[in-house]
Design a protein that fits this description.
mainly alpha
């Protein structure tokens, strides 16, 4: 298809919305959307990580033992799972824009209320609800960004906004170092809650709604207005449709016989979804196991606190750097094959990390931490983009949300299994070798998924 649609072709024959979006060059509208989505993701990451840096001050003020902080940490994670699995599918009914606006207001207000808490029970309840809001916003952000992205740039767009989630993690650490010593831990929640509410003003003014959502509900005038932001010369009388005539989808979502959530786990989608969930779970199990245990393991081997912090931060930095390369590679070649290779390389880097850890060579340790992050953290960002490639637009937010939610089970299991192994006397090296094996499983799942998708497309043609 030509990069530009001719005015006469559009005005006389009409066009499908996906063809219109794919034909447009990346321009000001896309940059604004990426900035808004990236800002929300940044604040999501900041809010998620802020509790980790506020926790020591909370424990001192409330005179809590360190062991009692576990439920406070876990509350937001459980809330995220609820948001991913239960609230994210509601975007199919209410629209991505409304979901993002409501959830941004929700986690902003609830985070501000965290600054007013007077007991651990109150904080746990608010962190759970905050996590639910965060968990519902992320899939809609990913789905909306991928819908407006030209197919040739979709993976790059999704990986780009997800990088800002990681930047939010880093910013939480940097900002907490200034704010908490000066104003206390409550100030972290004031900052974390005020920023989303300020951003909400910009979202209300500039965030677009999904044109497919509007067209399927008969709001053709609003859909046309939205598309004119992307294509200012779009004729006023053009007929824009959501799908090809032979796509088999009905014009009204209410007429569909089953929910999108059920579509994910039946028919031709069942095995695809299971393979994707396994890849998510394996990646998140490795990611959270490393993030949770790396400081403790490195510190227990006699390294200084500076090396402990540097090695942990480098896993995040490595992921951000790699993700900016992985996304374009997924667009230019097969996204499944690209990520499968990333996971295979990651298994080698994690095994290498296990070999050098405790060896006394600080530079080898830091270099291995960076390389591990490129594929583990970078792969975790990129697998989100894989979900947007796998599922069609009407299944995308639910597919992303469920994959994140089910994958979170791997994120919970990974640190627990590594902790049990270390407690049973396993050497850190053996734990890293086990994590390397888990990444091989992720690679196998992604490559098997590529074969299935290619076969299904060949059969459809």
């Amino acid at each position: 298809m030509a990069s530009e649609l001719s005015h006469s072709h559009v005005s006389t024959t009409g066009i499908r919305v996906d063809e219109l979006i794919d034909a447009r060059p990346v321009g000001r509208f896309h940059h604004l959307l990426l900035a808004l989505a990236g800002a929300v993701m940044f604040l999501d990451g900041f809010d998620t990580q802020a509790i980790s840096f506020a926790a020591p001050a909370i424990a001192r003020e409330w005179r809590l033992p360190v062991s009692s902080l576990g439920p406070i940490f876990s509350a937001a994670i459980v809330g995220l799972m609820v948001g991913y699995l239960c609230l994210a599918p509601l975007a199919h009914r209410f629209g991505h824009r409304r979901t993002i606006l409501v959830c941004t207001a929700m986690f902003g207000i609830l985070t501000l209320l965290c600054a007013l808490t007077a007991s651990p029970i109150q904080l746990i309840a608010l962190r759970f609800l905050t996590g639910a809001g965060l968990g519902a916003a992320i899939p809609s952000l990913v789905a909306l960004t991928s819908e407006f992205a030209p197919a040739r740039r979709r993976s790059s767009f999704v990986v780009f906004i997800y990088c800002w989630y990681a930047f939010g993690f880093v910013a939480a650490g940097v900002i907490s170092g200034f704010i908490i010593p000066m104003w206390g831990w409550r100030a972290m929640f004031v900052v974390g809650g005020t920023a989303p509410l300020v951003l909400l003003v910009l979202l209300l003014r500039h965030l677009p709604e999904s044109p497919r959502y509007l067209l399927l509900r008969g709001a053709h005038a609003r859909a046309h207005t939205t598309l004119r932001r992307l294509y200012p010369n779009l004729p006023i009388n053009v007929i824009v449709t959501t799908d090809a005539p032979d796509s088999g989808q009905t014009a009204e979502p209410a007429k569909r016989k089953a929910s999108v959530a059920l579509d994910l786990v039946r028919g031709r989608w069942f095995l695809n979804t299971v393979l994707l969930w396994l890849a998510f779970g394996a990646n998140l199990a490795t990611f959270y196991a490393i993030q949770s245990w790396l400081p403790t393991i490195v510190g227990s081997l006699g390294e200084s606190s500076r090396v402990v912090i540097a090695s942990t931060v480098l896993t995040t930095i490595g992921g951000i750097v790699a993700a900016l390369l992985i996304g374009p590679a997924m667009d230019r070649t097969s996204p499944f094959r690209t990520l499968g290779v990333v996971y295979l390389l990651g298994s080698g880097f994690v095994a290498l990390f296990g070999l050098v850890i405790g060896g006394g060579n600080t530079w080898a340790l830091l270099g291995s931490a960076f390389l591990t992050g490129t594929c583990v953290t970078g792969g975790q960002m990129s697998v989100i983009a894989l979900a947007t490639v796998l599922y069609p637009p009407d299944m995308r937010s639910t597919g992303v949300g469920w994959a994140l939610g089910v994958g979170r089970l791997g994120g919970i299991a990974g640190p627990l299994v590594v902790g049990a192994a270390l407690g049973a006397g396993a050497a850190p090296r053996e734990a890293f070798f086990a994590m390397a094996t888990i990444l091989v499983v992720a690679s196998i799942c992604v490559l098997a998924l590529e074969r299935r998708v290619r076969s299904q497309r060949h059969t459809a043609n």
